[in-house]
Amino acid sequence: MSHLSTDRLAALGDEAPTPVEAAHLAACEACAREQAAYRALVTMAHEERGAIGIPLTRFEAIASALAAEQVVAAPAARATHRRARPRTFLRTPMRAAAGILLLAGSAMVGRVSAGAATLPFGERTVATAPATVPRADAPSFASLEQARDAQLHSEALYQQAAAYLAEHDTTGVGEGSPVAYRSRLAALDQVISTTRQAMRQAPHDPVINGYYLTTLGQREATLRQLNTVLPASLRANSF
Amino acid sequence: MENEQLTVQRALAGDQAAMRALWTRHAPHVDVVVRRLVGHDPDLAADIAQEVWIQIFRALPSFRGDAQFGTWAHRIAVNRTLNALRRTKRMASVEVDVEDDTASVEPEGERALLAASIEEAAAKLSPGARTVFLLHDVEGYTHEEIAAELGITAGGSKSQLFKARAKLRVLLAHLVDAPANTRFKPESSHVAPLY
To answer: Is there a contact between B26 and B53 (Cβ–Cβ < 8 Å)?
Structure first.
C-alpha cells in the first residue's frame, strides 16, 4: 500500500483507521509519525476549548446598553450610556497602573529566565522593581469601578505596548544563539502553562493576568529574535 | 455555592447583581470564543463580545435550563459572532477553496517556529477553513452542526477541516512533531512523507 494521503492522515487526527490503514501505519514509520502529529494537533485544539482569557467586555457597559433598551433598570451608579471601550486616552493613574504591571511582569520573566545572559533585564530589576515605583505616583481609586476601569485599561495598554515592542524593539536582537532563545522559549512555555492553569481558578486575578500577558508578549518577542538568528531556510514567513 | 439556575432566575427578575455574577463567571469563557473566531482584530472582537452579552441577557427569558447556562451562552456567542462576521463580510465566502498549498506538507528544511500557538496558526488560515477548524476541533461542533451554521454541506465542512489541519500541522510542527525533550530541534525531527 502507498502512503496515506494528507487528507486521510488529517482525518486520522480523531478518526479510527480502517484495518488496511492500521496495517500500513504499523509498518510505515513516516505515516505513523504523521498520524501521531495530527493526533497531537487535535489534542492541542481540544485543550484550547477550556482556555479562558481576559474578558473583552465590561459589565457596566452591558448593563447600560440593556438599560437603554429597557431590558433592565439602569445601573444605579451611572445611568448614562457608555461605550464599551473608551480607549482613546489613559489618565495618569491608569498609566501608572500599567507601569506597575509592566514592571511586575518583566520581573517575573526575568526570574524565570535567570541564567540566560541574553535577557534584556536581570536580577537587579527583579529585586528592586516594586520599590522603584514612588509612593507619590501610586494610583488611588475612589471606587471598585474606577479600579476595574484602570485595570482593564492597563491590560489593554500593556498588550498594545508588548505588541509594539515585539515588532519594533531591536534591543538584543541577534546577540543570542538559537539555543539560548529556545531555552527562553521553553521557560516561557512553562510559565504560560502554569499561569493559564491558575487563571482557570482565578480568572480575574490581576497578578496572574499580568504574568500571563507579560509572558505571552515576551514569547512573541523571543520568537522574533529567534527568527533573526536562524538560517534563512528555517525562518518563519511571519508572526 | 449558589445554584446557577437561581442566579438566572434572579437575573430574569432584573437583579443586576445576579446578572453581574453570570457575566463574571462566564465572560472569561464566552469572550474567548468571540476573540478566537474574530481573530486578530481586538476592537471588532470587543464590539462583538458586547453584542453577544446584550443578546444573552435579552434572550434570558428563553433559557429553559435544559443545558448549562455556560453551554447556552456559548452557543449564542458562536452564533452572534458568525452573524457579525458575515455583516463585516469577513465570512462572505466561507466555502472558498482553501489555498492549494494547504494540502501540502513542507519538507523539513522549510519548517520553523512558524506559530506560537493554535490561535496564532489558525489566524493564517482562510476565514472559512479557520472557522470550520475552530468550530469542530476547538468548540466541539459536529460537521452537521457546522454545515447548518455556515450554510455549507457536511462534506464541505470535512474537506475544509482536513485542509486546515494539514496547514496547521506544518505551522505547528515544532509543537506536534517531537516529544518534549527534542522540542525546538527541527534538525532532529522526522522528514514528513511527500505525497
So the answer is: no
Structure confidence at residue B102 (pLDDT): 42
pLDDT in tens, A91-110: 444 444 445 555 445 544 44
A75 DSSP 8-state letter? P
Range of the domain at B8: 4-87
Q: Do A220 and B27 touch (CB under 8 A)?
A: no
| Chain A partners within 8 Å of B170 (Cβ) | none
Read off the pTM.
Answer: 0.56
- Cβ distance A44 to B183 less than 8 Å, yes or no, reads no
Residue B82: give its domain's CATH number: 1.10.1740.10
The label of the residue with cell 501610586 reads A138
* ipTM of the prediction: 0.76
Q: With a cut of 50, list the residues of chain B below it in pLDDT.
A: 1, 95-113, 180-195
Residue A236 has pLDDT above 70, yes or no: no
C-alpha torsion A55→A60→A64→A70, nearest 10: 90
Domain boundaries, chain A: 6-47, 57-84, 87-234
**Which string of b and e fits A118-133 if b means at least 16 CB within 10 Å?**
bbebeeebbeebeeee
- Whether the Cβ atoms of residue B135 and residue B146 lie closer than 8 Å to each other: yes
**Distance between CA atoms of residues A39 and A80, nearest Å:** 51
Q: Across the interface, do A49 and B140 touch by the CB < 8 Å criterion?
A: yes
Angle formed at CA B103 by CA B102 and CA B108, multiple of 5 degrees: 85
Nearest to A56 among B20, B45, B176 (CB): B45
Nearest Cα neighbor of B164 from B123, B109, B107, B192 is B123
* Number of domains chain B contains: 2
User: Are B183 and B136 in a shared domain?
Assistant: yes
Cell triple for A129: 522593581
End-to-end CA distance of chain A: 39
Under 8 Å CB pairs connecting chains A and B tally to 177
Q: Are B136 and B78 in contact (CB under 8 A)?
A: no
User: Residue B105 domain-assigned?
Assistant: yes
Distance from CA of A133 to the nearest CA of B (A): 30
Q: At what angle do helices B16-38 and B42-58 cross, to 10 degrees?
A: 140
C-alpha cell at A201: 481558578
Residues B65 and B132 in one domain: no
User: In chain A, what residues touch B43 (CB-CB under 8 Å)?
Assistant: 85
Residue with cell 539560548: A180
> Residue B62, by phi and psi: left (phi above 0), alpha (psi -120 to 50) or beta?
alpha
